[in-house]
Automatic annotation (TrEMBL):
Substrate binds at H56, L57, R58, N88, N274, H305, F319, G320. It catalyses: (S)-dihydroorotate + H2O = N-carbamoyl-L-aspartate + H(+). This is Dihydroorotase. NCBIfam families: PRK09357.1-1, pyrC_multi. The lineage of its organism: Bacteria, Bacillati, Actinomycetota, Actinomycetes, Propionibacteriales. It comes from Aeromicrobium phragmitis. One of its GO terms (biological process) is purine nucleobase catabolic process. GO terms for molecular function: allantoinase activity; dihydroorotase activity; zinc ion binding.
Length: 432
């Protein structure tokens, strides 16, 4: 039996306690606990390990951008104990074989649990359904299905997918982007896209798909999840859908909580992302949506790209930005330090709710005796300047480089084993 004491930590920022961990489980929470091994929590905040419903790990196929190993290292450094790996790999994760491969790589590396997302359609081509049932019953136990990067734009296919996954309590996570309305789109459509001469990506292209899909979900009585919602209109549609009792959940990314489309003036593709950075009014609306629960979760949409795909002309650059290592800091800055939400709600939006939506067990659980010791120790009083080169990710496309952000992940524990200690990766299990 291995026992250690995580001494002097503040659950959700409350009073300081000690947490005793034995064989990966929380066995006691109190004060003055003693044990052979002690990890000093420094009086910092402790939250349940974070869960990301939307991560691009790029393996198989683009191991030059990220691997399961490097992406899950970045996740651990960001305080995550479980990430959902998106299906837009090469080959696409549209078979039991590919999702099992990704799942096993996560287990092998051991920095966090990697829960594969299955593609909705074969090859993300939007033409016929992938083998959803086989992926659900595989060793990977897939519950989240998404063509993310592409929209399931065919209404009949979307309806069938929603109906199909009911059998195993799955959810369709939709990348809401009407393809015809966004042909060649490069940035948020507005006065600025006209001024900069870049093709616009109008809010209505997102909102039209969300409106259609909540109605489809209602019609067939299934679960819908909306990926990276980014506009005021989208928040209003989801709010309306929830008020009707439709089983819809939604996510917002850290970058849509902080950054706005005026950054595109630089023509620096570091700010090129899908959906695009929106207006200050949209940012205000997604913050309000997250605060009032219309938006259920924060998901990173960690989208690593190699230098050659980002350091080029805007029009040919890839869409996407890193997110795992900065997510908690950005949420602190935009939502906690502004007084919009407290740490309990952060834990709900970044741990409990994503675990529930993804139907993963053992994550997103309360800080309580008998629960798995998936924990993140976080110092919200620290400040740090983001350094792209310091990232554990194989890619460098963080939009926050050089920016000072609040907070620092001090330690992350996966089932009682430290994956991060003193803010650095801890791979050899002295505490395991
Ligand atoms: N979110 C992004 O900007 N990029 C995603 C896919 C996508 O949604 O386009 C990626 O895989 O790089």
């Amino acid at each position: 039996m291995s026992t250690f004491i995580l001494r002097n930590v503040r659950p959700f920022g409350g009073d300081a306690v000690d947490i005793a961990v034995t064989d990966g489980l929380i066995t006691e929470i109190g004060t003055g606990l003693s044990g052979e091994e002690v990890v000093d929590g420094g009086g910092h905040l402790v939250l349940p390990g974070l869960v990301d419903l939307h991560t691009h790990l790029r393996e198989p196929g683009r191991e030059d951008a990220e691997t399961v190993r490097t992406g899950s290292q970045a996740a651990a450094l960001g305080g995550f104990t479980c990430v959902h790996a998106m299906a837009n790999t090469d080959p696409v994760a549209d078979t039991a074989g590919v999702v099992e491969q990704v799942y096993r790589l996560g287990v092998e590396h051991g920095y966090c649990d990697v829960q594969p997302v299955g593609a909705v359609t074969v090859g993300l081509a939007g033409e016929r359904l992938a083998e959803l049932g086989a992926m659900a019953t595989s060793a990977a136990g897939v519950r989240v299905f998404s063509d993310d990067g592409k929209c399931v734009s065919d209404a009949v296919l979307m309806r069938r997918a929603l109906e199909y996954v009911k059998a195993f309590d799955g959810v369709i996570a939709q990348h809401a982007q009407e393809p015809r309305l966004t042909e060649g789109a490069q940035m948020n459509e507005g006065p600025l896209s006209g001024e900069l001469g870049l093709t616009g990506w109008p809010a209505v292209a997102e909102e039209a798909i969300i409106a259609r899909d909540v109605l489809l979900a209602e019609h067939v009585g299934s679960r819908l999840h909306v990926c990276h919602l980014s506009t005021r209109g989208s928040v209003e549609i989801v709010r309306w859908a929830k008020s009707r009792g439709i089983d819809v959940t939604a996510e917002v990314t850290p970058h849509h909580l902080l950054l706005t489309d005026d950054l595109v003036r630089s023509y620096d593709p570091i700010y090129k992302v899908n959906p695009p950075l929106r207006s200050p009014d949209d940012v205000q609306a997604v913050r309000e949506g997250l605060a009032d629960g219309t938006i259920d979760i924060v998901a990173t949409d960690h989208a690593p790209h190699p230098m050659e795909d980002k350091e080029c002309e805007w029009n040919v650059a890839a869409f996407g930005m890193l997110g795992l290592e900065t997510a908690l800091s950005v949420v602190q800055q935009t939502m906690v330090d502004t007084g919009a939400i407290g740490w309990e709600r952060v834990a709900e939006a970044m741990s409990a709710a994503p675990a529930r939506i993804g139907r993963v067990s053992g994550h997103g659980r309360p800080l309580a005796v008998g629960e798995p010791a998936n924990l993140v120790v976080y110092d919200p009083t620290a400040r740090r300047t983001v350094e792209a080169a310091a990232s554990a990710s194989l890619s460098r496309n963080t939009p926050y480089a050089g920016l000072e952000l609040p907070g620092r992940v001090v330690a992350t524990f996966l089932r009682g084993r430290a994956t991060v200690l003193d803010g650095a990766l801890f791979s050899e299990g002295a505490l395991s």
